[in-house]
């Protein structure tokens, strides 16, 4: 019942935004006409200027109100939950989704590649998705695309950010969800993993959901500047030199690994953005950026779980 009230409140806010935008459009049109009148009628310039000022103030006030209402509407729209799922938990979710079946065709599945827009790609089913749900779906920017499972009866509404990219967009409206492409993606693509942090970087090759080889490259990078030591500028210069040295050391270690695995499909990278750029410069593999924690005190299995985690949103 509370959700119903909130939905009615959001719809009322949207109607108010539409009404105010229309009023604003009419006022702007009136403003343009009065500007013309001011240019043509010098005798009434003072009166027209007064009216113009009043109209401008009203337009400004309306625009502020519209922005406020839009913010209130947007702020109220939030995902029911969001969680990283391990491979095993995600397999359980796929099994559950795959076992569902509706009496009629009410189950929407959308595979959306990174640079495709839902409204352009799946026009036939967009009208069946609530506008507030569309807002949430479009709100998330994903380097690997999105997979949407949506029941038009609003019982199931999920968005998945897969570990590996959706290669092409597709959609269906059927009595069951299409989980096959996601199941296949769980088999994994051969990928180079680079988790870069100053002084400590993990590199490895994933194939068939396991590391076929990996290593950690360590080097000395200065800590924080302390009073009585070098000047801040000199200290920063030395740190930069250490970071460049570490990046060069990682690139040197990567050469034989990449040479042994010429059939790589992706580079999955995380850690410090600047170091990632320094280490991956010159590689032409598609780059997937992920949030990865520092390597210290973690083994390869823990890194693998982090890399292969799938983000699931409840819409």
How would you portray this structure in words?
With 315 residues, the chain is an alpha+beta fold. Helix content is 49%, strand content 20%. It has 10 helices and 11 strands. The chain has a 6-stranded antiparallel β-sheet. A hairpin with a 4-residue loop joins β7 and β8. The chain starts with a helix and ends with a strand.
**Alpha-carbon distance between the two ends:** 18 Å
Helical residue percent?
A: 40-55%
Q: For the report, how would you describe the main beta sheet?
A: 6 strands, antiparallel
User: What order do the strands of the largest sheet run in, or round the barrel if closed?
Assistant: 1-11-4-3-2-5
Indicate the overall shape: flat
**What percentage of the residues does DSSP assign to strands (E)?**
15-25%
Oligomeric state, counting identical vs distinct chains: single chain
- The total beta strand count reads 11
In N-to-C order, the SSE pattern is HHEHEHHHEEEHEEEHEHEHE
- So how many helices? 10
Mean pLDDT: 83
Kindly name the structural category: alpha+beta
Poorly predicted parts: 224-231
Radius of gyration: 27 Å
Keywords:
five-stranded mixed beta sheet, 315 residues, alpha+beta, flat, six-stranded antiparallel beta sheet
Summary?
Helices cover 49% and strands 20% of the residues. It is of the alpha+beta class and 315 residues long.
Task: Spell out the blueprint of helices and strands.
Blueprint lengths: L1 H39 L4 H32 L4 E5 L1 H13 L7 E6 L5 H4 L1 H4 L4 H9 L6 E6 L5 E5 L8 E5 L5 H6 L5 E7 L2 E7 L4 E8 L13 H29 L5 E6 L1 H8 L6 E3 L10 H9 L1 E5 L1
Parallel strand pairs: 6-9, 9-10
Antiparallel strand pairs: 1-11, 2-3, 2-5, 3-4, 4-11, 6-7, 7-8
Helix pairs in contact: 1-2, 8-9
